[in-house]
Design brief:
Shape: globular
Number of helices: 7
Oligomer: single chain
Strand content: 15-25%
Strand order of the largest sheet: 2-6-4-3
Length: 189
């Protein structure tokens, strides 16, 4: 919940969380006053996250600060032949109902998205690579996609060699390039 509220897309960006915070689970019930429901429904994800930040700091006593340190990351760019991402129009009603589009993971090595904004797509790729993914595509709007890679990739997860190794099979890196026309390049930030 802290990651979502503060829009932290990768756990390696958060330092100093006590061990109990990674294992303890809590039920948090928040209610919106009836008169505020229409305004709440119009809030975008960032605006809702600001509300969660306020709740976590004022009601739960959470204290945070920002610092700079080097982390491993990937930069996402458009491939030489152009993107294969399907740009879609989303109705205002669906934008309100599905702020972040719809994502599915029908299998361990399969990710589908419908009407997904690029920021949500990046979080999905981030969760697969376990590294921060920085968007340098210049793509805007919402997208549909269907991404598939080899199931046995998980056994070798995290190796930068597999990005260019022809023996690695269809890794998420290769799938992103071949199926979506996007390139993930390793870097340090």
């Amino acid at each position: 919940m802290v990651d979502a509220a503060f829009e932290v897309m990768n756990a390696q960006l958060v330092a100093g969380i006590p061990k109990w915070a990674m294992s303890q689970r809590y039920d948090i019930e928040a209610k919106v006053a009836e008169a505020d429901v229409p305004a709440f429904k119009r809030l975008d994800t960032h605006q809702r996250n600001l509300l969660w930040q306020s709740i976590l700091t004022s009601r739960c006593g959470l204290k945070t600060h920002y610092t700079t340190r080097e982390v491993s990351a990937f930069v996402l760019t458009v491939a030489k032949d152009g993107t294969k991402m399907n740009s879609v129009e989303v109705s205002d009603e669906d934008k309100t109902k599905f702020l972040e589009g719809k994502t599915y993971s029908p299998g361990a090595a399969h990710l589908q998205g419908i009407g997904v904004p690029m920021a949500r797509f990046l979080r999905s790729i981030d969760s697969i690579t376990h590294s921060l993914v920085v968007d340098k595509t210049g793509l805007n709007g919402r997208f549909d996609y269907d991404l598939k890679w080899d199931r046995d990739w998980a056994a070798n997860r995290g190796s930068e060699k597999e990005i260019t190794d022809p023996e690695a099979g269809i890794t998420p890196f290769k799938a992103v390039k071949d199926q979506l026309g996007l390139v993930l390049t390793p870097m340090k930030l």
